[in-house]
Amino acid sequence: MTNKIENLTEEQMNKFPQYVEEWLDIGLSTEPVNKAMTEKYIKQVYENQGLDTSNLEFEYRCSPEKKHLAAIMWNNLNAPFLSFYSFMRKEIGVENINKIDCFIELSKYCGPVALYDKKVIVYERPVKIKMDEQNRLHSETGPAIVYRDGFSVYSWHGVNIPKEWIEDSPPSAEDAIRWDNMEQRRAACEMIGWVNILNLLNARIIDEDKDPMIGTLVEVDIPDIGREKFIRVLCGTGRSFALPVPPEMTTALEANAWTYDLDGDVLRKLEVRT
Q: Tens digits of per-residue pLDDT, 150-191?
C-alpha cells in the first residue's frame, strides 16, 4: 500500500532553494554535449522500455530543427519538470519513479533529444541564453538563444518574435494591432509602447485623476481581442507610459495602485513614483 504524502517537514521545505538553483543551472547550461554520459543514459531510456540498444545509432547536431520537434522526448530547458521528481526521489524517498532517473541524469549532459526506433538525434545546448527577471526567454538587443552553428531564436518576454523586430525595427503601430499571431501582437505592442497604441485606437477615458502621476484610466477595443483597460501615467522622470490593468478597475487610483500591489491610500501618499 502506498502512503499518501500530505505534508513536508520544515527541513525538506528548506531545501527548495538549492533545488531551484541547481535545476536553473541545468536548464540554462551552455556546456557542450558530453557524448559518453549522454549515450549511457539514453541507452537506459531504451532498456527501461525493453528495447535493444546494440545497434542504436547516435547522431549529433548543433541546433534543433522544426521537422524533428515532434520526436523530441527531452529538452534541457524543461529541467524544472524533472526537478520535482529529483526532489521527491532524494528528499521524500519515493521509489516508484525509478525509470525517470535516467532522464534526470540525461538533462545534465545534453540539449534536446529526438528518439527513433534505431536512431537518436542529440542536439547541442545553446552557447548563449538570455532571460528576463521572470526567467522567460528575452533580449531587447539581439537573439535570446544562440546555438553553436549560428541558429538563433529571438524572444520578447517568452514570446518568439521575428528577427527583424530586434535587428531592424518593430512593426508600426498600425501593423502591430492587426498582427495575426495574438501573442506576437501583444509583444509588438509592448515594444512599440502602449501609449502609442492607445493613441492610435482613440482610447476612451473612464477616470482621470487630478494627479498626472496617478494617471488616467482608459479603455480601448483591440482588434480580435476585445475591450481592455489601461492606466496611462506620467512617471517621475517626466515620461508618459501605459500599462494594461484588469477589467474590474474603475478608477485611475485603483488601477495605478494595482500595478504596485498597494492600497490606493498608500499610493496617494507617495510623492514620487518611477
A: 999 999 999 999 999 999 999 999 999 889 999 999 999 999
Band (pLDDT 50/70/90 cuts) for residue 126 is: very high
Q: Which of 74-78, 214-218, 244-248 has the lowest mean pLDDT?
A: 74-78
* Cα three-residue angle 49-88-27, rounded to 5 degrees: 75
Q: Is the separation of the CB atoms in 274 and 236 below 8 Å?
A: yes
CA distance 24 to 29: 8
| Residue from 204, 199, 201 nearest 218 by CA | 204
User: Long-range contacts made by residues 218-225, C-beta under 8 angstroms, separation at least 24?
Assistant: 218/242, 222/177, 223/177, 223/178, 224/182, 225/182, 225/185
Half-sphere exposure of 83 (CA within 13 A, CB side): 18
Burial of 212 (0-12, 13-18, 19+ CB in 10 A): middle
Length of the chain: 274
